[in-house]
Write a structure and sequence with these properties.
The structure is a homotetramer. Chain A has about 140 residues and is an alpha+beta fold. In chain A, about 25% of the residues lie in helices and about 35% in strands. Chain A is built from 3 helices and 7 strands; from the N terminus they run E-H-H-E-E-E-E-E-E-H. The interface of A and B includes residues 17, 18, 20, 24 and 63 of A.
Chain lengths: ~140, ~140, ~140, ~140
Protein backbone atom coordinates (compact mmCIF):
# COMPACT_ATOMS: atom_id res chain seq x y z
CA UNK A 1 0.00 0.00 0.00
CA UNK A 2 1.10 3.51 -0.72
CA UNK A 3 0.14 6.38 1.57
CA UNK A 4 1.10 10.03 1.47
CA UNK A 5 0.05 13.13 3.35
CA UNK A 6 -0.17 16.63 1.94
CA UNK A 7 -0.84 19.83 3.85
CA UNK A 8 -3.29 22.22 2.24
CA UNK A 9 -4.33 25.54 3.76
CA UNK A 10 -7.81 26.66 2.78
CA UNK A 11 -7.73 29.53 0.27
CA UNK A 12 -10.16 32.44 0.43
CA UNK A 13 -11.56 31.89 -3.05
CA UNK A 14 -12.40 28.30 -2.15
CA UNK A 15 -15.08 29.42 0.30
CA UNK A 16 -18.67 30.06 -0.74
CA UNK A 17 -21.50 32.07 0.71
CA UNK A 18 -22.23 29.41 3.31
CA UNK A 19 -18.87 30.52 4.75
CA UNK A 20 -17.32 27.12 4.19
CA UNK A 21 -15.19 25.49 1.51
CA UNK A 22 -17.34 24.77 -1.55
CA UNK A 23 -17.89 21.02 -1.82
CA UNK A 24 -16.32 20.79 -5.28
CA UNK A 25 -12.98 21.95 -3.92
CA UNK A 26 -12.41 18.86 -1.81
CA UNK A 27 -12.30 16.88 -5.05
CA UNK A 28 -9.61 19.28 -6.20
CA UNK A 29 -7.75 18.64 -2.94
CA UNK A 30 -8.04 14.91 -3.67
CA UNK A 31 -6.39 15.62 -7.02
CA UNK A 32 -3.60 17.57 -5.32
CA UNK A 33 -3.12 14.61 -3.01
CA UNK A 34 -2.80 12.00 -5.76
CA UNK A 35 -0.59 14.23 -7.93
CA UNK A 36 1.64 14.65 -4.88
CA UNK A 37 1.70 10.89 -4.23
CA UNK A 38 2.68 10.20 -7.84
CA UNK A 39 5.41 12.85 -7.64
CA UNK A 40 6.77 11.33 -4.44
CA UNK A 41 7.15 7.89 -6.05
CA UNK A 42 8.94 9.41 -9.02
CA UNK A 43 5.99 9.82 -11.39
CA UNK A 44 5.16 13.52 -11.68
CA UNK A 45 1.95 13.74 -13.66
CA UNK A 46 3.50 16.07 -16.25
CA UNK A 47 6.08 13.36 -17.01
CA UNK A 48 3.38 10.71 -17.32
CA UNK A 49 1.50 12.93 -19.76
CA UNK A 50 4.64 13.67 -21.74
CA UNK A 51 5.05 9.91 -22.16
CA UNK A 52 1.75 9.83 -24.06
CA UNK A 53 -0.65 8.65 -21.39
CA UNK A 54 -3.38 10.64 -19.72
CA UNK A 55 -5.28 9.60 -16.61
CA UNK A 56 -8.84 10.92 -16.68
CA UNK A 57 -11.24 10.40 -13.81
CA UNK A 58 -13.68 7.54 -14.47
CA UNK A 59 -15.76 7.84 -11.33
CA UNK A 60 -15.61 9.28 -7.85
CA UNK A 61 -17.53 9.59 -4.65
CA UNK A 62 -17.19 11.76 -1.59
CA UNK A 63 -18.77 11.87 1.85
CA UNK A 64 -18.68 15.18 3.66
CA UNK A 65 -18.36 15.04 7.44
CA UNK A 66 -17.23 18.39 8.87
CA UNK A 67 -17.01 21.55 6.78
CA UNK A 68 -13.60 23.16 6.36
CA UNK A 69 -13.35 26.92 6.63
CA UNK A 70 -10.87 29.72 6.10
CA UNK A 71 -7.97 29.43 8.51
CA UNK A 72 -8.11 25.64 8.45
CA UNK A 73 -4.96 23.73 7.70
CA UNK A 74 -5.92 20.42 6.15
CA UNK A 75 -4.14 17.10 6.00
CA UNK A 76 -4.97 15.35 2.74
CA UNK A 77 -4.21 11.64 2.99
CA UNK A 78 -3.98 9.59 -0.17
CA UNK A 79 -3.98 5.80 -0.30
CA UNK A 80 -3.30 3.43 -3.17
CA UNK A 81 -4.07 -0.06 -1.97
CA UNK A 82 -3.82 -2.07 -5.16
CA UNK A 83 -1.55 -2.06 -8.18
CA UNK A 84 -3.15 -0.39 -11.21
CA UNK A 85 -4.41 -2.53 -14.07
CA UNK A 86 -6.89 -0.96 -16.47
CA UNK A 87 -7.80 1.36 -13.62
CA UNK A 88 -6.11 2.98 -10.68
CA UNK A 89 -8.13 3.18 -7.47
CA UNK A 90 -7.31 5.92 -5.02
CA UNK A 91 -8.78 6.60 -1.63
CA UNK A 92 -8.64 9.93 0.20
CA UNK A 93 -9.31 11.24 3.66
CA UNK A 94 -9.03 14.87 4.69
CA UNK A 95 -8.60 15.88 8.31
CA UNK A 96 -8.48 19.36 9.79
CA UNK A 97 -5.93 20.69 12.30
CA UNK A 98 -8.09 19.40 15.18
CA UNK A 99 -7.97 15.87 13.84
CA UNK A 100 -11.59 15.93 12.70
CA UNK A 101 -12.50 14.07 9.53
CA UNK A 102 -13.56 16.69 6.96
CA UNK A 103 -14.40 14.29 4.17
CA UNK A 104 -13.46 11.00 2.60
CA UNK A 105 -13.90 9.53 -0.80
CA UNK A 106 -12.48 7.52 -3.60
CA UNK A 107 -11.54 8.22 -7.17
CA UNK A 108 -11.04 5.79 -10.02
CA UNK A 109 -8.68 6.85 -12.79
CA UNK A 110 -8.40 5.32 -16.23
CA UNK A 111 -5.50 5.34 -18.65
CA UNK A 112 -5.88 6.63 -22.18
CA UNK A 113 -3.51 7.06 -25.07
CA UNK A 114 -3.08 10.83 -25.56
CA UNK A 115 -3.16 10.53 -29.35
CA UNK A 116 -6.01 8.11 -29.91
CA UNK A 117 -7.85 9.01 -26.70
CA UNK A 118 -8.58 5.28 -26.40
CA UNK A 119 -8.40 3.40 -23.10
CA UNK A 120 -5.20 1.47 -22.49
CA UNK A 121 -3.89 -0.59 -19.60
CA UNK A 122 -1.48 1.01 -17.15
CA UNK A 123 1.81 1.22 -19.08
CA UNK A 124 4.52 -1.24 -18.01
CA UNK A 125 6.93 1.57 -17.16
CA UNK A 126 4.50 3.05 -14.67
CA UNK A 127 3.51 -0.33 -13.29
CA UNK A 128 7.14 -1.15 -12.59
CA UNK A 129 7.50 1.95 -10.46
CA UNK A 130 4.31 1.18 -8.55
CA UNK A 131 5.56 -2.37 -7.92
CA UNK A 132 8.88 -1.13 -6.57
CA UNK A 133 7.10 1.06 -4.06
CA UNK A 134 4.57 -1.58 -3.07
CA UNK A 135 7.45 -3.88 -2.26
CA UNK A 136 9.19 -1.36 -0.03
CA UNK B 1 -41.03 13.26 -9.69
CA UNK B 2 -39.54 16.60 -10.62
CA UNK B 3 -37.36 16.96 -13.70
CA UNK B 4 -35.76 20.03 -15.23
CA UNK B 5 -33.31 20.65 -18.01
CA UNK B 6 -30.70 23.40 -18.12
CA UNK B 7 -28.46 24.31 -21.04
CA UNK B 8 -24.82 24.98 -20.17
CA UNK B 9 -22.19 25.90 -22.73
CA UNK B 10 -18.67 24.83 -21.76
CA UNK B 11 -16.52 27.78 -20.68
CA UNK B 12 -12.87 28.11 -21.63
CA UNK B 13 -11.60 28.27 -18.05
CA UNK B 14 -13.39 25.00 -17.28
CA UNK B 15 -11.03 23.04 -19.52
CA UNK B 16 -7.75 21.61 -18.28
CA UNK B 17 -4.53 20.57 -19.97
CA UNK B 18 -6.08 17.30 -21.14
CA UNK B 19 -8.15 19.58 -23.40
CA UNK B 20 -11.41 18.54 -21.76
CA UNK B 21 -13.63 19.89 -19.01
CA UNK B 22 -11.99 19.30 -15.63
CA UNK B 23 -13.89 16.58 -13.78
CA UNK B 24 -14.68 18.83 -10.79
CA UNK B 25 -16.70 21.15 -13.01
CA UNK B 26 -19.42 18.63 -13.74
CA UNK B 27 -20.25 18.69 -10.04
CA UNK B 28 -20.60 22.45 -10.41
CA UNK B 29 -22.92 21.88 -13.37
CA UNK B 30 -24.95 19.53 -11.15
CA UNK B 31 -25.22 22.41 -8.68
CA UNK B 32 -26.37 24.77 -11.44
CA UNK B 33 -28.97 22.18 -12.38
CA UNK B 34 -30.43 21.78 -8.91
CA UNK B 35 -30.37 25.53 -8.19
CA UNK B 36 -32.27 25.98 -11.45
CA UNK B 37 -34.80 23.27 -10.54
CA UNK B 38 -35.41 24.89 -7.15
CA UNK B 39 -35.85 28.27 -8.80
CA UNK B 40 -38.33 26.84 -11.29
CA UNK B 41 -40.54 25.45 -8.52
CA UNK B 42 -40.48 28.80 -6.73
CA UNK B 43 -37.62 28.16 -4.30
CA UNK B 44 -34.63 30.20 -5.41
CA UNK B 45 -31.73 29.12 -3.21
CA UNK B 46 -31.02 32.67 -2.06
CA UNK B 47 -34.57 32.83 -0.68
CA UNK B 48 -34.16 29.49 1.08
CA UNK B 49 -30.95 30.75 2.67
CA UNK B 50 -32.58 34.03 3.70
CA UNK B 51 -35.21 31.97 5.50
CA UNK B 52 -32.47 30.59 7.76
CA UNK B 53 -31.79 27.22 6.20
CA UNK B 54 -28.70 26.13 4.30
CA UNK B 55 -28.41 22.99 2.22
CA UNK B 56 -24.85 21.65 2.30
CA UNK B 57 -23.81 18.61 0.30
CA UNK B 58 -23.67 15.46 2.43
CA UNK B 59 -22.39 13.08 -0.21
CA UNK B 60 -22.11 12.70 -3.94
CA UNK B 61 -20.95 10.40 -6.67
CA UNK B 62 -20.31 10.82 -10.35
CA UNK B 63 -19.59 8.50 -13.25
CA UNK B 64 -17.82 10.03 -16.22
CA UNK B 65 -18.74 8.61 -19.63
CA UNK B 66 -17.70 10.96 -22.47
CA UNK B 67 -15.54 14.02 -21.90
CA UNK B 68 -17.05 17.41 -22.69
CA UNK B 69 -14.89 19.94 -24.48
CA UNK B 70 -14.91 23.57 -25.53
CA UNK B 71 -17.69 24.24 -28.02
CA UNK B 72 -19.97 21.68 -26.42
CA UNK B 73 -23.45 22.71 -25.44
CA UNK B 74 -24.59 20.54 -22.57
CA UNK B 75 -28.00 19.56 -21.36
CA UNK B 76 -27.98 19.18 -17.59
CA UNK B 77 -30.95 17.11 -16.43
CA UNK B 78 -31.94 17.18 -12.79
CA UNK B 79 -34.30 14.73 -11.14
CA UNK B 80 -35.87 14.73 -7.71
CA UNK B 81 -37.68 11.45 -7.26
CA UNK B 82 -38.67 11.58 -3.60
CA UNK B 83 -39.92 14.25 -1.25
CA UNK B 84 -37.18 15.54 1.05
CA UNK B 85 -37.14 14.49 4.72
CA UNK B 86 -33.90 14.92 6.62
CA UNK B 87 -32.19 14.73 3.25
CA UNK B 88 -32.88 15.69 -0.31
CA UNK B 89 -31.71 13.27 -2.98
CA UNK B 90 -30.99 14.61 -6.43
CA UNK B 91 -29.97 12.75 -9.53
CA UNK B 92 -28.25 14.30 -12.55
CA UNK B 93 -27.44 13.34 -16.10
CA UNK B 94 -25.51 15.50 -18.52
CA UNK B 95 -25.76 14.98 -22.27
CA UNK B 96 -23.87 16.75 -25.03
CA UNK B 97 -25.35 18.24 -28.22
CA UNK B 98 -24.97 14.86 -29.96
CA UNK B 99 -27.09 13.14 -27.33
CA UNK B 100 -24.13 11.34 -25.79
CA UNK B 101 -24.14 10.83 -22.05
CA UNK B 102 -21.29 12.91 -20.62
CA UNK B 103 -21.71 11.93 -16.99
CA UNK B 104 -24.29 10.98 -14.41
CA UNK B 105 -24.35 11.11 -10.67
CA UNK B 106 -26.27 11.82 -7.55
CA UNK B 107 -25.98 14.31 -4.76
CA UNK B 108 -27.47 14.17 -1.29
CA UNK B 109 -28.14 17.48 0.42
CA UNK B 110 -28.81 18.03 4.10
CA UNK B 111 -30.63 20.86 5.82
CA UNK B 112 -28.98 22.90 8.55
CA UNK B 113 -30.07 25.85 10.60
CA UNK B 114 -27.94 28.80 9.45
CA UNK B 115 -27.49 30.08 13.00
CA UNK B 116 -26.77 26.91 14.93
CA UNK B 117 -25.30 25.04 11.95
CA UNK B 118 -27.14 22.01 13.30
CA UNK B 119 -28.97 19.53 11.05
CA UNK B 120 -32.71 20.02 10.80
CA UNK B 121 -35.45 18.34 8.81
CA UNK B 122 -36.65 19.92 5.60
CA UNK B 123 -38.71 22.94 6.75
CA UNK B 124 -42.49 22.58 6.36
CA UNK B 125 -42.67 25.63 4.09
CA UNK B 126 -40.27 24.06 1.62
CA UNK B 127 -41.87 20.64 1.89
CA UNK B 128 -45.25 22.12 1.02
CA UNK B 129 -43.89 23.53 -2.20
CA UNK B 130 -42.26 20.23 -3.12
CA UNK B 131 -45.53 18.43 -2.44
CA UNK B 132 -47.50 20.80 -4.67
CA UNK B 133 -45.13 20.12 -7.55
CA UNK B 134 -45.04 16.37 -6.98
CA UNK B 135 -48.82 16.34 -7.24
CA UNK B 136 -48.85 18.20 -10.53
CA UNK C 1 -16.54 48.59 -33.63
CA UNK C 2 -17.87 45.22 -32.55
CA UNK C 3 -20.18 44.90 -29.58
CA UNK C 4 -21.95 41.88 -28.18
CA UNK C 5 -23.99 41.15 -25.09
CA UNK C 6 -24.09 37.89 -23.16
CA UNK C 7 -26.39 37.01 -20.30
CA UNK C 8 -24.75 35.24 -17.35
CA UNK C 9 -26.59 34.16 -14.23
CA UNK C 10 -24.45 34.06 -11.11
CA UNK C 11 -23.63 30.51 -10.06
CA UNK C 12 -23.55 29.40 -6.42
CA UNK C 13 -19.94 28.24 -6.49
CA UNK C 14 -18.87 31.65 -7.77
CA UNK C 15 -19.75 33.31 -4.47
CA UNK C 16 -17.30 33.56 -1.59
CA UNK C 17 -17.69 34.01 2.14
CA UNK C 18 -18.33 37.74 1.72
CA UNK C 19 -21.60 36.55 0.15
CA UNK C 20 -20.73 38.08 -3.21
CA UNK C 21 -19.18 36.86 -6.44
CA UNK C 22 -15.44 36.35 -5.96
CA UNK C 23 -13.54 39.08 -7.81
CA UNK C 24 -11.62 36.60 -9.97
CA UNK C 25 -14.84 35.35 -11.52
CA UNK C 26 -15.61 38.60 -13.32
CA UNK C 27 -12.45 38.04 -15.34
CA UNK C 28 -13.88 34.65 -16.26
CA UNK C 29 -17.11 36.36 -17.29
CA UNK C 30 -15.02 38.70 -19.46
CA UNK C 31 -13.58 35.59 -21.09
CA UNK C 32 -17.06 34.18 -21.68
CA UNK C 33 -17.98 37.50 -23.26
CA UNK C 34 -15.09 37.59 -25.71
CA UNK C 35 -15.39 33.90 -26.60
CA UNK C 36 -19.06 34.59 -27.35
CA UNK C 37 -18.21 37.65 -29.47
CA UNK C 38 -15.69 35.63 -31.48
CA UNK C 39 -18.22 32.86 -31.96
CA UNK C 40 -20.83 35.34 -33.15
CA UNK C 41 -18.54 36.70 -35.86
CA UNK C 42 -17.76 33.18 -37.05
CA UNK C 43 -14.56 32.56 -35.10
CA UNK C 44 -15.26 30.06 -32.34
CA UNK C 45 -12.14 29.92 -30.21
CA UNK C 46 -11.82 26.14 -30.61
CA UNK C 47 -11.58 26.66 -34.38
CA UNK C 48 -8.96 29.37 -33.95
CA UNK C 49 -6.93 27.04 -31.77
CA UNK C 50 -7.32 24.16 -34.22
CA UNK C 51 -5.82 26.45 -36.87
CA UNK C 52 -2.61 26.61 -34.85
CA UNK C 53 -2.98 29.92 -33.06
CA UNK C 54 -3.56 30.51 -29.37
CA UNK C 55 -4.58 33.79 -27.81
CA UNK C 56 -3.14 34.11 -24.30
CA UNK C 57 -3.91 37.09 -22.07
CA UNK C 58 -1.06 39.62 -22.06
CA UNK C 59 -2.50 42.06 -19.54
CA UNK C 60 -5.77 43.05 -17.96
CA UNK C 61 -7.35 45.44 -15.54
CA UNK C 62 -10.68 45.57 -13.78
CA UNK C 63 -12.54 48.12 -11.70
CA UNK C 64 -15.18 46.78 -9.38
CA UNK C 65 -18.22 49.02 -8.81
CA UNK C 66 -21.15 47.06 -7.35
CA UNK C 67 -20.83 43.49 -6.13
CA UNK C 68 -22.88 40.82 -7.90
CA UNK C 69 -24.60 38.21 -5.79
CA UNK C 70 -26.52 34.98 -6.14
CA UNK C 71 -29.78 35.54 -8.00
CA UNK C 72 -28.26 38.27 -10.15
CA UNK C 73 -28.62 38.01 -13.89
CA UNK C 74 -25.71 39.83 -15.48
CA UNK C 75 -25.30 41.44 -18.86
CA UNK C 76 -21.71 41.07 -20.03
CA UNK C 77 -20.94 43.58 -22.76
CA UNK C 78 -17.88 43.09 -24.92
CA UNK C 79 -16.37 45.73 -27.19
CA UNK C 80 -13.65 45.47 -29.80
CA UNK C 81 -12.88 48.96 -30.99
CA UNK C 82 -9.82 48.40 -33.15
CA UNK C 83 -8.69 45.76 -35.59
CA UNK C 84 -6.14 43.37 -34.09
CA UNK C 85 -2.47 43.66 -35.08
CA UNK C 86 0.06 42.03 -32.81
CA UNK C 87 -2.50 42.39 -30.06
CA UNK C 88 -6.25 42.35 -29.69
CA UNK C 89 -7.73 44.86 -27.26
CA UNK C 90 -11.06 44.06 -25.69
CA UNK C 91 -13.14 46.14 -23.34
CA UNK C 92 -15.85 44.80 -21.05
CA UNK C 93 -18.64 46.15 -18.93
CA UNK C 94 -20.91 44.07 -16.74
CA UNK C 95 -24.29 45.35 -15.61
CA UNK C 96 -26.78 43.70 -13.28
CA UNK C 97 -30.52 43.29 -13.85
CA UNK C 98 -31.14 46.71 -12.28
CA UNK C 99 -28.85 48.41 -14.78
CA UNK C 100 -26.12 49.04 -12.23
CA UNK C 101 -22.53 48.80 -13.39
CA UNK C 102 -20.99 45.80 -11.64
CA UNK C 103 -17.49 46.16 -13.06
CA UNK C 104 -15.58 47.24 -16.13
CA UNK C 105 -12.18 46.41 -17.47
CA UNK C 106 -10.04 45.67 -20.42
CA UNK C 107 -8.04 42.70 -21.56
CA UNK C 108 -5.22 42.57 -24.07
CA UNK C 109 -4.71 39.28 -25.91
CA UNK C 110 -1.64 38.23 -27.87
CA UNK C 111 -1.32 35.70 -30.66
CA UNK C 112 1.12 32.82 -30.43
CA UNK C 113 1.94 29.93 -32.69
CA UNK C 114 0.69 26.79 -30.89
CA UNK C 115 3.76 24.78 -31.93
CA UNK C 116 6.58 27.23 -31.30
CA UNK C 117 4.73 29.16 -28.57
CA UNK C 118 6.25 32.27 -30.14
CA UNK C 119 4.32 35.53 -30.62
CA UNK C 120 2.91 36.08 -34.09
CA UNK C 121 0.76 38.80 -35.64
CA UNK C 122 -2.97 38.22 -35.96
CA UNK C 123 -3.28 35.68 -38.81
CA UNK C 124 -4.62 37.10 -42.09
CA UNK C 125 -7.56 34.69 -42.10
CA UNK C 126 -8.74 36.02 -38.77
CA UNK C 127 -8.05 39.62 -39.65
CA UNK C 128 -10.20 39.28 -42.78
CA UNK C 129 -13.15 38.22 -40.71
CA UNK C 130 -12.67 41.08 -38.27
CA UNK C 131 -12.48 43.51 -41.18
CA UNK C 132 -15.73 42.21 -42.67
CA UNK C 133 -17.54 42.77 -39.41
CA UNK C 134 -15.98 46.19 -38.79
CA UNK C 135 -17.28 47.27 -42.20
CA UNK C 136 -20.81 46.13 -41.48
CA UNK D 1 7.45 48.47 3.52
CA UNK D 2 6.16 44.98 4.13
CA UNK D 3 7.25 42.11 1.93
CA UNK D 4 6.46 38.42 2.16
CA UNK D 5 7.08 35.40 -0.02
CA UNK D 6 4.79 32.42 -0.43
CA UNK D 7 5.52 29.22 -2.29
CA UNK D 8 2.71 27.90 -4.47
CA UNK D 9 2.95 24.75 -6.57
CA UNK D 10 0.76 24.79 -9.67
CA UNK D 11 -2.27 22.54 -9.31
CA UNK D 12 -3.58 20.39 -12.14
CA UNK D 13 -7.05 21.94 -12.18
CA UNK D 14 -5.51 25.39 -12.56
CA UNK D 15 -4.30 24.58 -16.08
CA UNK D 16 -6.42 25.13 -19.16
CA UNK D 17 -6.42 23.66 -22.65
CA UNK D 18 -3.51 25.89 -23.68
CA UNK D 19 -1.53 23.68 -21.29
CA UNK D 20 -0.72 26.60 -19.00
CA UNK D 21 -2.17 28.08 -15.84
CA UNK D 22 -5.40 29.91 -16.66
CA UNK D 23 -4.82 33.67 -16.36
CA UNK D 24 -7.52 34.12 -13.71
CA UNK D 25 -5.63 31.89 -11.30
CA UNK D 26 -2.71 34.26 -10.88
CA UNK D 27 -5.14 36.72 -9.32
CA UNK D 28 -6.07 33.96 -6.91
CA UNK D 29 -2.39 33.45 -6.17
CA UNK D 30 -2.15 37.20 -5.48
CA UNK D 31 -4.96 36.73 -2.98
CA UNK D 32 -3.12 33.81 -1.34
CA UNK D 33 -0.08 36.07 -1.12
CA UNK D 34 -1.84 38.96 0.62
CA UNK D 35 -3.81 36.68 2.96
CA UNK D 36 -0.47 35.12 3.91
CA UNK D 37 1.15 38.54 4.47
CA UNK D 38 -1.73 39.61 6.71
CA UNK D 39 -1.49 36.37 8.65
CA UNK D 40 2.26 36.82 9.13
CA UNK D 41 1.79 40.28 10.68
CA UNK D 42 -0.87 38.92 13.03
CA UNK D 43 -3.98 39.77 11.03
CA UNK D 44 -5.45 36.55 9.67
CA UNK D 45 -8.24 37.56 7.32
CA UNK D 46 -10.81 35.45 9.16
CA UNK D 47 -10.07 37.47 12.31
CA UNK D 48 -10.43 40.76 10.42
CA UNK D 49 -13.77 39.61 9.09
CA UNK D 50 -14.93 38.45 12.52
CA UNK D 51 -14.20 41.99 13.75
CA UNK D 52 -16.85 43.30 11.36
CA UNK D 53 -14.74 44.54 8.46
CA UNK D 54 -14.50 43.06 4.99
CA UNK D 55 -11.89 43.95 2.42
CA UNK D 56 -13.31 43.64 -1.11
CA UNK D 57 -11.19 44.23 -4.19
CA UNK D 58 -11.75 47.69 -5.66
CA UNK D 59 -9.51 47.37 -8.69
CA UNK D 60 -6.64 45.32 -10.00
CA UNK D 61 -4.31 44.91 -12.92
CA UNK D 62 -1.97 42.18 -14.04
CA UNK D 63 0.74 41.84 -16.66
CA UNK D 64 1.54 38.35 -17.81
CA UNK D 65 5.17 37.67 -18.75
CA UNK D 66 5.92 33.92 -18.83
CA UNK D 67 3.23 31.28 -18.53
CA UNK D 68 3.37 28.94 -15.55
CA UNK D 69 2.70 25.28 -16.12
CA UNK D 70 2.16 22.08 -14.21
CA UNK D 71 5.28 21.12 -12.27
CA UNK D 72 6.19 24.76 -11.65
CA UNK D 73 6.88 25.87 -8.13
CA UNK D 74 6.07 29.56 -7.87
CA UNK D 75 7.29 32.26 -5.54
CA UNK D 76 4.52 34.76 -4.89
CA UNK D 77 5.95 38.02 -3.57
CA UNK D 78 3.63 40.49 -1.89
CA UNK D 79 4.52 44.10 -1.15
CA UNK D 80 2.68 46.71 0.89
CA UNK D 81 4.51 49.98 0.46
CA UNK D 82 2.16 52.43 2.15
CA UNK D 83 0.02 52.39 5.25
CA UNK D 84 -3.67 51.81 4.46
CA UNK D 85 -6.08 54.73 4.67
CA UNK D 86 -9.41 54.35 2.90
CA UNK D 87 -7.66 51.86 0.66
CA UNK D 88 -4.90 49.30 0.92
CA UNK D 89 -2.57 49.03 -2.06
CA UNK D 90 -0.80 45.76 -2.65
CA UNK D 91 1.75 44.86 -5.27
CA UNK D 92 2.60 41.33 -6.39
CA UNK D 93 5.24 39.60 -8.41
CA UNK D 94 5.30 35.91 -9.19
CA UNK D 95 8.50 34.15 -10.19
CA UNK D 96 8.98 30.54 -11.26
CA UNK D 97 11.65 28.13 -9.99
CA UNK D 98 14.04 29.36 -12.70
CA UNK D 99 13.77 32.94 -11.47
CA UNK D 100 11.69 34.06 -14.44
CA UNK D 101 9.01 36.64 -13.87
CA UNK D 102 5.66 34.95 -14.48
CA UNK D 103 3.46 37.97 -13.87
CA UNK D 104 3.16 41.13 -11.85
CA UNK D 105 0.28 43.28 -10.84
CA UNK D 106 -1.37 45.35 -8.19
CA UNK D 107 -4.58 45.11 -6.27
CA UNK D 108 -6.43 47.83 -4.38
CA UNK D 109 -8.60 46.72 -1.49
CA UNK D 110 -11.28 48.76 0.22
CA UNK D 111 -12.71 48.43 3.71
CA UNK D 112 -16.41 47.98 4.29
CA UNK D 113 -18.52 47.50 7.37
CA UNK D 114 -19.85 43.92 7.22
CA UNK D 115 -23.28 44.94 8.47
CA UNK D 116 -23.96 48.10 6.51
CA UNK D 117 -21.78 47.10 3.54
CA UNK D 118 -20.70 50.76 3.47
CA UNK D 119 -17.11 51.88 2.89
CA UNK D 120 -15.14 52.75 6.00
CA UNK D 121 -11.56 53.80 6.63
CA UNK D 122 -9.04 51.19 7.74
CA UNK D 123 -9.97 50.47 11.37
CA UNK D 124 -7.55 51.90 13.97
CA UNK D 125 -6.85 48.44 15.40
CA UNK D 126 -5.63 47.21 12.04
CA UNK D 127 -3.74 50.40 11.30
CA UNK D 128 -1.84 50.08 14.57
CA UNK D 129 -0.59 46.65 13.60
CA UNK D 130 0.47 47.86 10.16
CA UNK D 131 2.33 50.78 11.79
CA UNK D 132 4.19 48.47 14.15
CA UNK D 133 5.42 46.36 11.26
CA UNK D 134 6.32 49.35 9.10
CA UNK D 135 8.52 50.62 11.92
CA UNK D 136 10.38 47.34 12.27
Amino acid sequence: MLKTELNIDVRYYETDQMGIVHHSNYLRYFECGRVDLLKKIGLPIEKIEESGVMMPVVSLNCHYRTPAKLGDSLNVITYIEELPKARLDIRNEIFNQDGMLVCEGSVMLGFINSETRRPVRCPKSLLNIFEQHFND
